Amino acid sequence: MSYDCQYIQVIGPTGVGKTTTIAKMAAEAVLNDRKKIAFITTDTYRIAAIEQLKTYANLLNVPVEVAYKMSDLQLAMEKFSSFDLVFVDTAGRNYLDPQYIKETQELLSAKQSSETLLVLSLTAKEQDLQKIIENFSPFNIDKFIFTKLDETLSYGTIFNLMKKFK
Length: 166
Ligand SMILES: Nc1nc2c(ncn2[C@@H]2O[C@H](COP(=O)(O)OP(=O)(O)OP(=O)(O)O)[C@@H](O)[C@H]2O)c(=O)[nH]1
Ligand SMILES: [Mg+2]
Known about the structure:
Mean pLDDT: 95
Strand order of the largest sheet: 3-2-4-1-5-6
Largest sheet: 6 strands, parallel
Strand content: 15-25%
Bound molecules: guanosine-5'-triphosphate, magnesium ion
């Protein structure tokens, strides 16, 4: 996978595989591409979220910083400014509620330019995914990542969403 920015923010609804996908992308970057990478997590919400990312970080032998607020995120990004890629994990929330979009957006508004990836599970209904994408529009999503292809038998949603949201 190629990236357009040094900082990669991964956002999306609960349990879609944000943290797992970061681990996969990071493993590819470290093991195949020999990149110097780091993790930042802003998920201080879910129980054991930090431990989950730290477990992957230990396996790949890469550093992690935890950001409780925007200023922590800013400091962590500066700390990792010499790294090739910095993956920023975020908390999954019910993003049909615009309040959570606002909270996450406030937390992520650091000054470094970053690429924003929206993770969507193909096991979700297309109509709900459309609404989630619309609610995420204040983020300027750069790319979608579809997960759980292995848990569905229908893939048309990928094409419909790509067509609708370009
Ligand atoms: N079958 C399947 N399971 C997946 C995939 N990606 C992630 N999972 C599983 O989905 C569950 C949730 O994964 P996480 O990576 O913790 O999801 P998350 O979006 O970070 O979850 P929250 O941070 O709690 O919102 C775990 O059991 C993962 O193993 C996938 O592509 N296919
Ligand atoms: Mg997670």
